[in-house]
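Technical note accompanying the year-one report. For the benefit of new consortium partners, we illustrate the data format agreed upon in the data management plan: each record pairs a sequence with a structure-token string. No post-processing was applied to the example shown here.
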Amino acid sequence: MAISSSAFGTLNKAISAYSDEMYTRAKKIVSTDLVGMDANINANGEDFIGQVRFYKPLGAYAVGGTNASADVSGSSSTVVNVASQDENYGGTTNISTEVQTYIKTVRTHGANEYLVQSVISGEDGMAKIARDFAETRAEDEDQALRACLQGVMNTELKTANDITGTKYSDRFAGNSVDADGTKSFGYVAASSDTIGTGSSLEKLVDLSASAPGQRVEHIIRAMGAWSDYTPDFVYMVVSPEVYLDIKVANLVDDERVTDGNISFETLLGGVIRVIVSRNFGQSLGSVTHAALSGTTAITTAKVSYMMLPGSLFMHSTAVPNPVAIDRNEGVGSGSGRTTAWYRWGYVMHARGYSFTGTQTAFATNATYAGSATTPAWERKSDLLNLGILPIFHA
């Protein structure tokens, strides 16, 4: 980077050393228990992608019928036969398998220092670059994680948009509490079940309600997406705006929960562990989604996330020559420039989903995120294996 003597005072440089300004980027969630590992993911395999194969659960319970011959075709249901003294053949059940595709990415970061800068400042810029590399990598991994969450949200939003129905409960599992796997795995905080123009969307926390249970009603109801398998506790990732509503509503428990080296504020006696990051809960902009507002464009829709531990899988990819130094002696009128290059790679994968985006190149954050029109993910698992619940609210 180019500098001039006016950028700092010579006297000040002579008597003081440089210090590092603290980073004020959004708080990261990549280091929390939201991120886990799957032993079946091989981050160092051939190709840009890999696949995890698994058996699907046997189908819904069904009573065996009458079969004049052996049931060789089988059924997708779990057929249970009642023994009899006749020539009836028992019904059978087929076993089915499924595949989840994951994709790798490799990222690089280069930073420059000109000889002139080093001479004038009397400082080693390469040391600054080395000190901050960990922050650069952590920020990149967190950005990729958020892109994956956005990708899951877009997938579930498209699922809801494609369903015919005039009610939120027709389209979202969290609003219907029926464990219907054909519905979108999400929840809409609204005062009415009728979709209408989206004017019924409400804030995640109701500050006007007098009873604490009513203030947090939408947070409680969102957990209905897991139906009768409601988890013991969940993480809720919200923006500072929503967090402040929670604080004003006096909903935060007196005691914190410590998980590893992280201390969480909690709600409902530890059932909800709150994670605050300004990169979440932001407005979706001016949107028109059939599942949220019919044919009307709205600007009030925001999204927060309710998540289970290990909702995303992350594995490091081995990258040859991860650190390199490049010298260009001709630039700077011959004074030279040093460039430090850092390279790292990983797999970032949403549990229960298969990556359907571009599979002939390393994933970018944009390909992780996709769009509600063309999602980058496809749901492959039932609700017990899903840990990312988007919550749409005002």
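Partners are asked to follow this layout when depositing records. The radius of gyration is 26 Å.
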